[in-house]
């Protein structure tokens, strides 16, 4: 994926039977720890802190984007439009993101995309609100505002596509290690993945609902001032816009500090794992080299594109990696869709929750996801504190069953909404409370049962890739591929809701309710099919049979 591919080959060539690509003699240099140590030096700590701050703003983004856009534009069609625009950008740009990652250092990509997203949510969206949506707006053109918001979401999708390939859960750890001349163990990968997911999921649990509650409270103050309904809605949209701007400003500054000052310098020989001195020169030459002229740039681009293609071919030709990557993409996508689309659509449509009000929808979406993320945090702590990378293939098999149970739990949402349709106006009755409990239970079970497999399989994939010769080429393909799968699934689920509900006229609750239930049932069937397929065929398709790969990963073929 990066410009140090050739420089990493000596590092890979020194790999012994220890998993994760760590040379026994050099892995613990400067730390006193063994080759499977999970100790993080200053570089990886800065990377983790920057990514954790990123997780805070992204948790707000996942939960609050749809209510924000709905409040800002005032048109329900914008929900599907912004998701489609965002995911089309991911779909188009992701294949080229690996090429850019091969041309730039990881910290430069993260710095540029953090600045880019900050400009959108800290500067441009507030300006759109002032000019087009505020009570004292200068321009009264809902169509223009709709188009501009969709364009900004498309640009935002470009930023995310570029950043995804170097995120901690998309292979960024190994890219950073290669560029800084640091080796990475499976224990370090598991620690980085687990800690990041704990921070990310905890932000859904505490941070996002707190921000949503504050936004709802401030928005309700506007209602109490005797203003017109139009001005009240405009002020509520302004509250959500300012909420996003404030969170993005603070967390972006934290991330930028970590990326610029924490990752910009040389690795600390006292804290980070170092490669042998003979390899540092080669790595630094690859990291600091720049094309001298246009011809050399073209040749370098051609080489990077060739490397990306080779990564795709290597992925496809290695069955366990091919299927593991495909299912990892699906696991990431169904979780993203649950937070970004399904829960938001449910809260907005349900009389028992948001009932079409933007700030209430934002609040209840945050609360539902927060309760659900309790399960994710529990699973994350289990993977971090209690789970060790298995030494036998059968150790991974309970994770496949967990995927199936997580997928089946989505059907509780269908049951819950079916109960609501039987008594839509009885919001304080027994049926309403049973329905609400089922919603919270469904989302909690989903995250509880899906988080552990995702973390475990991320570690499995990374271990398999590093056990393959020139496996760094596969890392260059992982991020773009997962982004593409994620964009297709999220976009498809967004379109399913918007197209089916779009067939109803405004105010026709019976039609909207019926079509929403149909869309929800179709989506739940998709989730269940994914779970069944992975549970039945996953162990056979994803766990390697090749003894050489098993040895390099530290897995036992016997008694598997």
Task: Explain the layout of strands and helices.
Layout: H1 5-13, H2 42-73, H3 77-103, H4 106-133, H5 142-164, H6 172-180, H7 186-223, H8 229-262, H9 277-288, H10 294-317, H11 319-349, H12 358-385, H13 397-408, H14 411-422, H15 430-466, H16 472-501, H17 509-542, H18 547-553
Helix pairs in contact: 1-9, 2-3, 2-7, 2-8, 2-11, 2-12, 3-5, 3-10, 3-16, 4-5, 4-8, 7-8, 7-12, 7-15, 10-16, 11-12, 11-15, 11-16, 11-17, 12-15, 13-15, 13-17, 14-15, 14-17, 16-17
Walk me through the structure.
With 560 residues, the chain is mainly alpha-helical. The chain has a domain at 41-273 and 338-386 and 406-452 and 491-527: MFS general substrate transporter like domains (Growth Hormone, Chain: A, Up-down Bundle), CATH 1.20.1250.20. 76% of the residues lie in helices and 0% in strands. It is built from 18 helices and no strands. The protein has helices spanning 5-13, 42-73, 77-103, 106-133, 142-164, 172-180, 186-223, 229-262, 277-288, 294-317, 319-349, 358-385, 397-408, 411-422, 430-466, 472-501, 509-542, 547-553. Helix 11 (319-349) packs antiparallel against helix 17 (509-542) and helix 12 crosses helix 15 (430-466). The longest helix has 38 residues, at 186-223. The protein is globular and about 65 Å long. The two termini are 33 Å apart. The model is unreliable at 1-36, 268-297 and 546-560 (pLDDT under 50). Residues 7-17 have a biased composition (Basic and acidic residues). Keywords: Membrane, Transmembrane, Transmembrane helix. Residues 1-36, 276-295 are annotated as: Disordered.
Entry summary:
With about 550 residues, this protein is an all-alpha fold. The protein contains 18 helices and no strands. The relative contact order is 0.16.
């Amino acid at each position: 994926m990066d410009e140090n591919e050739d420089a990493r080959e000596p590092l890979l060539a020194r790999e012994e039977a220890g998993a994760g690509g760590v040379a026994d003699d050099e892995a613990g240099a400067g730390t006193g720890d063994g080759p499977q140590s999970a100790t993080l030096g200053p570089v990886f700590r800065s990377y983790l802190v920057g990514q954790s701050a990123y997780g805070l703003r992204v948790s707000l983004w996942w939960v609050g984007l749809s209510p924000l856009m709905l409040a800002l534009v005032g048109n329900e069609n914008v929900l599907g439009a912004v998701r489609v625009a965002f995911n089309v950008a991911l779909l188009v740009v992701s294949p080229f993101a690996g090429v850019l990652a091969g041309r730039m250092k990881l910290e430069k990509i993260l710095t540029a995309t953090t600045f880019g997203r900050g400009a959108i949510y800290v500067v441009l969206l507030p300006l759109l609100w002032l000019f087009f949506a505020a009570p004292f707006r200068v321009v009264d053109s809902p169509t223009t505002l709709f188009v501009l918001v969709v364009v900004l979401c498309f640009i935002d999708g470009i930023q995310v596509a570029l950043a995804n390939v170097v995120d901690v859960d998309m292979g960024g750890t190994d890219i950073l290690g290669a560029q800084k001349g640091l080796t990475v163990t499976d224990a370090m990968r598991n620690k980085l993945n687990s800690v990041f997911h704990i921070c990310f999921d905890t932000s859904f649990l505490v941070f996002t609902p707190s921000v949503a509650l504050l936004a709802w409270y401030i928005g309700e103050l506007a209602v109490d001032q005797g203003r017109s309904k139009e001005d009240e809605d405009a002020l509520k949209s302004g509250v959500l816009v300012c909420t996003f701007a404030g969170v993005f400003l603070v967390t972006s500054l934290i991330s930028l500090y970590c990326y610029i000052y924490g990752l910009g310098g040389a690795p600390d020989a006292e804290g980070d794992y170092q490669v042998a001195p003979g390899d540092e020169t080669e790595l630094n030459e690859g990291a600091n080299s720049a094309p001298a002229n246009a011809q050399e740039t073209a040749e370098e681009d051609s080489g990077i594109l060739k490397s990306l293609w080779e990564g795709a071919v290597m992925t496809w030709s290695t069955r366990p990696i091919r299927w593991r990557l495909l299912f990892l993409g699906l696991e990431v996508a169904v979780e993203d869709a649950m937070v970004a689309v399904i829960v938001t659509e449910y809260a907005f449509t349900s009389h028992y929750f948001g009932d079409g009000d933007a700030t209430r929808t934002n609040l209840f979406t945050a609360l539902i996801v927060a309760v659900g993320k309790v399960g994710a945090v529990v699973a994350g702590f289990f993977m971090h504190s209690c789970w060790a990378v298995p030494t036998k293939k059968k150790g991974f098999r309970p994770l496949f069953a967990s995927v199936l149970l997580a997928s089946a739990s989505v059907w509780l949402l269908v049951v819950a909404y079916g109960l609501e349709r039987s008594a839509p106006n009885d919001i304080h009755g027994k049926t309403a409370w049973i329905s609400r409990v089922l919603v919270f239970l469904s989302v909690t079970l989903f995250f509880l049962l899906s988080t552990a497999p995702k973390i475990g399989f991320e570690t499995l994939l990374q271990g398999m890739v590093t056990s393959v010769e020139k496996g760094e080429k596969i890392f260059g393909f992982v991020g773009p591929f997962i982004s593409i799968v994620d964009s297709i699934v999220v976009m498809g689920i967004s379109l399913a809701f918007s197209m089916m509900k779009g067939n109803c006229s405004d105010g026709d609750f019976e039609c909207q309710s019926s079509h929403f239930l149909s869309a929800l049932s179709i989506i739940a069937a998709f989730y269940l099919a994914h779970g069944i397929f992975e549970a039945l065929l996953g162990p056979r398709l994803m766990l390697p049979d090749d003894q050489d790969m098993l040895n390099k990963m530290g897995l036992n073929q016997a008694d598997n």
